[in-house]
Every structure is written in structure tokens, then in C-alpha cells.
Amino acid sequence: MPLLQTMLGAAGEQDDFRHGGNVRELSDKAKCAPEDLLDFSASINPLGPPDWVRETAVASLSDIGRYPDPDNSELTLAACEHFQVWPTEALAGNGSGELMDAVLRSSRLSKAVIPTPSYVDYARACQSCGLRVEFLPLEESAGFAVDWVSLDSHLTEPAAVILTQPNNPTGVCFDADKLRELARRREDSLFVVDEAFADFVPGLDRLVKDRPDNVVVLYSLTKFFSLPGLRVALCFARPERIQAIRSKLPPWTVNTLAQRVGARCFADKTFMDSAREGVSELRESLASELATVPGLKIFPSSANFILCRVSRVGMSAKPLAEKLLAEGVAIRLCDNFRGLDETWFRVAVRSARDNDRLVRSLKSISGVKTASKRRKSPALMLQGTSSDAGKSVLAAALCRIFVQEGLNPAPFKAQNMALNSCVTADGLEMGRAQATQALACGLAPDVRMNPVLLKPNTDVGSQVIVMGRPVGNMAVREYVEYKPKAMEAVRQAYDELSAEHGVMVLEGAGSPAEINLRSHDIVNMAMAEYAEARVLLVGDIDRGGVFAALAGTMELLNDWERKLVAGFILNKFRGDPTLLDPALERIRERTGKPFLGVVSFLNDLGLPDEDSVAFKSHDQNAAAGENQVDVAVVDLPRISNFTDVDPLRAEPDVNLRVVRSAAELGRPDAVILPGSKSTVGDLRYLRETGLDEAIKGLMGKSVLVGICGGFQMLGQYIADPEKVESEAGTVEGLGILPIATTMGKEKTLTQVEGSHTASGLDVRGYEIHHGTSEPLLPSIRPVFRTKLSAPLGWGLKNGAAWGAYLHGLFDADGFRRHFIDQLRKRRGWEPLKTPQTVFNLNPALDRLADAVRSALDMDAIFRLIG
């Protein structure tokens, strides 16, 4: 029979009651910020709190001007419904500690029996309530199981027996039926069962409902729901005992926020099931890894923590804890648990990444050489409060700044939804924005920089391109199902690319607060977490409402997502930035995040836009100025590669207009039909708006140009026998060029160099299209030819209409000037002959970098990437 140890009320030192989780004290010793400490000393569910906790707490703030419900009715009823007990058998309190004191004070008992090791505060509670405590050691040789016979033999006088289910710190569960049997036999004793960790144990026989009259069950929401800061718990007992316990409590023991959050916890069955399963998997994995550390003995646990022992002779756990703390890792020394000595320690179950770090640190301290795990390259991620907030441009700026600092950066965007794409040297398709960012880094475009590209072809579907190649057209729900596979490609691409570079500059998409997309996110916070990136949240002040957007975004983020946000950037500001100071301070106080800069509105950057938002915002009614030729670009619903016309916009003698109706078209010097991701659908749009007849009416009056999809539309017909784009089969084109297009499933992706047939001037660019186009009449001639003389496009002999599949053809300074000069000649103006502008993005990127560098707190940003 184990030796019974006795403690009189005043015995024991204050240090006997120390706890884990004192983050401030531990971080001071570790010489790190509290948020940087990896705390394994407090056993809190690593998968909590539930995502809705913040919003529920914030929504409850409107009621803080009133006293909380003294009966905790909503909370108590929710708990009773969950556990299927009567409301008269439940009582809420400000944490289990408060309820334990009230239970003991109402018991009128003078003795307590505590099987040990156990939670150290039980002894403190007994001491403060004047109970004499007898400790019943749980033997390691018996797996720390309760010895019911021994326990029974020490209940010859009434006593309060305090047990934890499962035990803290051993994680061992006891047989609930054995307790029921003993309680019925010892009716004059009180059995207090603390089920603080019971939710972690699948299928556990709970005593909340099926309990004898002399059993009280304590239940805390602290551990399982990760709510130690709210202090909310309940106890369950027969009604008469509940009333006696209530009499020992002060009024209003549970605040309004805790009541509301606690009530909702009991309704969240989804969180309970997923957390129970997830923590179990994490625990088993951690236990298996810890068992490989030499000199440690690991004890099986059913809870969210694991008890360990230093098994090497003459060694204690204290030096180990000190070495770990020097690395920013805290464990729970167990020498103040009665029955355990200085060789014991406990570790909480945390995330897989945290657990891996703990195991690696333990092995390193133990002298075990582990396979080197490459630390991820430092990473910074730009996310926005909306689309077109300027993320792409700011990412390009940071890429160029980091190049200037010699940091070897690379850009990355996991998933890009855009119709503006380019082709890499190896014939793979990626987003144009990442190609620009690659240029800012001094790198060739690499499809790993944008592993997933979505090109919308309907309002509810897109062509999905993974690692540069199309994998199919998918509706939204189809793509959601496909996303796990897409994420595999994203992770592989990121790992490979980041291994080759010193710092990664990531870009998000849209807003991370699009909560309807959060569950299957692969491009915003999920990617930031995987890359271990600090996030800069960008707000567009030019569109208005930016402070609401920033604060609202932070409110809608989950707790772990908010922790990734390092600060804010205001973009596109016009005016005196000092006028913003009161608002910046208010947002900083509200969110706890600093502003890292205010970037002015930068006019005429000369950089390609990522999507068509900016393109579609251009003034379509601007009249041509003096000595300017008038070029109209038709805005198609599924316009793609709209940046083809950017070099024309930069020319001083060109007025570039965006038109959306026949009335806006007028009589320009040239009409450009740009690329389209849905050629047949956009051709239908031209007919519905009357633009088709308006364009045909300009034959002989304006030069008509088609690029890619626009080239196909200029032809006689488009056949789609394999229904790549349309169910229509064959549709008529505009009939301007005598060509016929046949769609095909294979997609042409290639970079091309060639020359303009009439002038001999060089052009270069890339082709991205389905299908081929063939001439129908000899009256048509090749407009461009490759270096091997293959036709790149076709046009009328008089030059009045022509088209090509070549994106980027206007980037060539010589050909662009030739095209404009031909329009000038048609007006009777002198050609300028020499290029008026040089289309080179590098000077623009340098100007951008200079402007952004001067606007941001670059010292703070450099600290973020180490």
C-alpha cells in the first residue's frame, strides 16, 4: 500500500504552487518578445480558439454598460443541453479555481485526499479552505493508475477526494465506474472530479451526467477551447449542493463576454470534433518523435500534453529547460508536482511545426545530429484590403529595392486570376505581373513564381493553368475540389524557388477577409503561414473608406491570421500625409499594428497592370489633342493581355481611348480589337452592342487591327468542333479579313521573334492561343514572319486591316513608331520616323523603387526579413 503523505494547512512554500504559461516571465528569461516565445509549458489547445470567438466577444461589447446576467442563464442552459442535465444541476463560475474554492467551503469537511501527482492548485485550495490534506501517491510502476483499494482505506472519515480526468500532469484516465462504485460506498465523502482535459479524450465515460449524488464535476472551457483569458467554467452536482456552492460565490461571477462566448462553445460541434481528432494526431506524432530523443522516457497520455522524464543518471530536467529557454522554447518543469522530482517535465502538444522545433532542439541538446532542415528563406507578403490596392506594384518595388540591397529576391504569387499573362522561355504560361516582378529582380520569368493561373472564360468558370500548362476548364465548385491538388503544386514550386533565393516577396490576391473563400484559401493567409511570411496589409486610400477597410479586414481575420500581419501601408495618397496622423494613430490603437508608410499616388508609372480593373477605368471619351492620332481600343468583357497597348499609350502623339459602345467609337485613325479569353462570347458582345457594324463601317476609313482573339474575330468564321470555347460549333466572324479559324484543344504557348513584312522592322513577343487561322483568298498577305519565314499574321494588301497572334508586338520601339507614322501619313502629317519613347521597364522600376523606398519605413521592413 502506498505511503500516505500528510500536509497541514500552513505547510509548503509559495513556489509549490507555481504554474506554467507565465509568458512574460519566461520571455524575460529567454530575452525575447513574448510573442516570439514558443510556450510548451501551458497546455492549451493548439487548434483553438474557434474562429468566431473574437466576433462574438466584440459583438458583446455593446452590453458592457449593463451588469451581466447574474444567473448566467444562456451559458448554463447551453452547457446543460450539451451534457443533457437539468439546469438546476449546473452552476457557472469565473474559472475552475473559483468553483473549487466554493465547493470545498460548502462541503463542511475538514479533510481532503488528493492522489498525486496532480494539479498543484488543489492543495492550495484545500489549504485556503482549512482542510487537512492527505496525498496518496500514484505509483509510476503502476502507470500512475488510481489505487482504489488504497483510496478507499483512507476514507474511514468523511473527506473531499479530488481527482482529474484525465490526470494532470500524467494524462492518465481513471475508470469512471470504479469512482461511481466507491462514491456510492462512501456516501459521507465528497468526490470532486475536474474534467478540464476530458474533451480531448474520444469516447470518454463522462461523469457530468451519470454521477452519484456525492460527486461534483468541474468543467473548464480554458483548455479545450483555448480561452484562458476569459475565465469561464461550470460545476455539475445535485441541486441542493449547487445551491450550497452558489451561496459561497459573489454575484456576477462571469462577465458578459465570457457568458456569450461560453454559450456558443457548446453549440460548436464541428470545432469539438475536428479539434479532438486533430490534437490526438498531433499528440501521437509528438510522442513518437520524443521517444527518439536519447535519455528521455515518454509516458502515454490521453490529453493535450505529454509527461517526460530525464532518464540519464545524475541529470535533472532543469539544465535542459534552461538550454531550451535560451532558444526561445519553454517547457514545464514538474518538480513542484508532489510525487515527481527534478527529473520530470511536461510539454504541451502544439502545432506540427512547433512540435518539430521542440524535438529538433531536444535532439541537438542531447548531441544527436539530425538531418539538416533548411530554414525557409525570409519572406515578406503583400496583401490588400481589396483588388487593385496596388499589391503588385508595391511587390515589384520591394523586389527592385531588395536587388539594390544585394538580397537576391524572387517574387511569388500562389494563384493569380488574370487574363493578362505571358509565356516563359520554355513555353509555359504565367501571370504578367509576376513576369514584371521577375524583371524587377533581374530574373527571367519562371513559372514557379506563379504556379496557378486562372483565366476566367465565363462568369462562373475559368481555364485552370498549373505550372504553366492548362489542366482544364473548371466551374467554381470543380476548382474548389481541385484546390488541394493545386496547393501541392504551389508548395513544391515555392520550396524550390525559395531554396534558390535569399528573400521571397509574396503577393496575395483580392483580400484575405473574403470569408466565403477562407476555408479553401491557397493564396493569402494560408500561403503566408506556409512560407512563414510576415504580412503587410495594403489599403488604397484613393478609392475612399481605407481606414474602415483596414480595421474591418483585421476584425474579419482569425486570430492566427492577425498575428501574421506586421503592419499597414497606405497606397495612392494625394496631399499632405501629416493630415493622416490622427487616423493612423487611431487605427494603430485599435489593431495594435503600426503603419509602415504612406505611398503617394504615382502617375504614369509605365508598368503593366495585373488585371483589367485599371484598364477599364481609363477615360473612353478623351478627345485627341493637337498632333495626336486617335486610337480606339475595344473593351471586351473577357479582354486578355490588355497591356499590349500600353506602349502606344506612352507615346506623346497618340491618344488612346477605351470604348465600350458604338456611340463611343467615333471615327478613330485605328481600331484595335485586343485579345480575348472567350472569343466567341466576346464576338457575341460586339453584335449585341452594335459595335460589330460600327467597326465594319470604318473599313477604308480607319486601320482595323486584331491581336490574338481580336485577330480571330476579324475573320470570316470561327469553327470550334471540339467545343473548346463554345457549344455553337461554327460562328461567323466580322468578315473583314478572309481568314478562317479552327479552335483546338492544344494551346499554343511560345515566345517568338520575327519581322514586319512591309518595313523589315524586328518584332518579338509571345503567342498564347487555342486554334489556328488560315487564309481563304490570295488577296491577303503575311503581315509578320518568323526568322524562319513562317507567317505570324495576315492582312489586306492595302494595309487597311490586319491581325496577328503576337502579344507584345507594340513593345518594339521601331515597329511601334512605324505603325504610328503610317497613321500620321493617312492624316497628311509628317512622320516622325525616330522613336519618341523607349519602351523599357527598367527605368520605370528604378523610379518606382526610389519613390517607395522614400515612403516606407525600410529599417522596419528590413528587420521583418531579418
Would you kindly provide a brief summary of this structure?
This protein is α/β, with parallel strands linked by helices and 866 residues long.
Could you describe the 3D structure shown?
- There is one protein chain.
- The protein has 866 residues and is of the alpha/beta class.
- The protein has 28 helices and 39 strands.
- Helix 3 (73-83) runs parallel beside helix 9.
- The protein is elongated and about 115 Å long.
List key phrases describing it:
single chain; 866 residues; 8-stranded mixed sheet
Give the secondary structure arrangement, pairings included:
Blueprint (H helix, E strand, L loop, with lengths): L4 E3 L15 H8 L7 E2 L13 H8 L12 H11 L6 E4 L2 H12 L3 E6 L4 H8 L3 E6 L10 H6 L6 E5 L11 H10 L4 E5 L20 E6 L12 E4 L2 H8 L9 H12 L1 H22 L5 E4 L5 E6 L6 H10 L2 E2 L1 E2 L10 E5 L3 H14 L13 E6 L6 H14 L4 E4 L2 E3 L3 E3 L5 E3 H9 L11 E7 L2 E6 L2 E7 H24 L3 E5 L17 H7 L2 E7 L5 H11 L2 H6 E9 L7 H11 L3 E6 L11 H5 L12 E6 L4 E2 L5 H4 L4 E6 L2 H4 L4 E4 L1 E2 L2 H11 L1 H6 L6 E5 L1 H5 L3 E3 L10 E3 L6 E18 L5 E14 L4 E7 L4 E6 L4 E4 L8 H15 L13 H15 L2 H7 L2
Parallel strand pairs: 2-12, 4-5, 4-6, 6-7, 7-8, 15-23, 15-24, 16-23, 17-20, 24-25, 25-26, 27-29, 27-30, 30-32, 32-39, 33-35
Antiparallel strand pairs: 1-5, 3-9, 8-9, 10-11, 11-14, 13-14, 18-19, 20-21, 21-22, 28-31, 33-34, 35-36, 35-37, 37-38, 38-39
Number of strands: 39
The secondary-structure class comes to: alpha/beta
Task: Please give the oligomerization state of what you see.
Answer: single chain
Q: Which segments are poorly predicted (pLDDT under 50) over 5 or more consecutive residues?
A: 1-14
| Overall radius of gyration | 35 Å
Termini Cα gap: 59 Å
| SS element count, helices | 28
Tell me, what's the shape?
Answer: elongated
* Helical residues, percent: 25-40%
Mean of all residue-level pLDDT scores = 91
Strand content: 15-25%
- What can be said about the biggest beta sheet? 11 strands, mixed
